Amino acid sequence: MSAGTHVVHADHAVGHGHGSLRSYLIGFCLSVVLTAIPFWLVMSGALDSRQATALTIMVFAAAQIVVHMIFFLHMSARSENGWTMMALIFTLVIVGITLSGSLWVMYHLNVNMMPGHGMSQMR
Amino acid sequence: MNTRITIAQDSAEVPVFYLVDEHEHAEGASTALGFWIYLMSDCLIFAVLFAIFGVLGGNYAAGPSPKDLFDLPLVAVNTSMLLLSSITYGFAMLTMEKGHIGATQIWLAVTALFGVAFVGIELSEFAHMIHEGATPQRSAFLSSFFTLVGTHGLHVTFGLVWMVTLMVQVAQHGLVEANRRRLMCLSMFWHFLDVIWIGVFTFVYLMGMLR
Question: In chain B, what are the domains?
Fold first, then answer.
């Protein structure tokens, strides 16, 4: 966090900016597009492969979350001297561990506990 | 020890080993950061609920699957309600910056109406599902679905209670510093709920239809 190096106590009060009309409208338009495309993809079945559709809508969701963070929640590396960004990064790490860990462990548990599965090879 | 203390007291200048004058903290200066950390902890609650849905979302117990239950056009309408409420709350914040009480109240009311529409549509969807026998008790998929989507809906409901409270506060005391700070916290809360909803409509509804 390079922003943390030039900390001045006087700017404690400078918290979150509120953005401008322009930034809210840009964020809103981007969100509408990023919401409409995934819904259209799933409802029309434009992409033949399910996996490709799933992957695409996940990318759109990630992009829209970033758009909301920047244009609506006014995230930047500088707000609160970088501490909001640090809290966000820490949370994202925990969320990543929770989600990937749960899915990974439980998937393998399901596969390995499937009745009848792999019994013939064990003999 | 005693002798040393008396020596220190006797000397003209008492040595002090801590900051006597803490530097100025404006009232509420740390509220935004504190509220942000609360939102991050809320984010963890939702992450766990998403993980549960990810693990159990395919366990239908021979009951209804997402394809039998979900009505995507209705979800799209619901999503647009929440998105519209986000932009109108943005307008409320912009008019608050300019100090227009009336306009701020109107935008807050519009936001609240969109929020009420969102909760209403969600409740009617739940009622329809339960009427068809798709209750939380039916399967692990439905338990995790109602827990995740219901928790989000509950957050929106409490956000609405908060919004009405703040509208009364602004009506009584005007846009004083404390009310501006509270409106800013609710703004973060409201936009945060919209971010969570992106995850819900993508992973629960759209991915559910693809399963």
Answer: 69-211 (1.20.120.80)
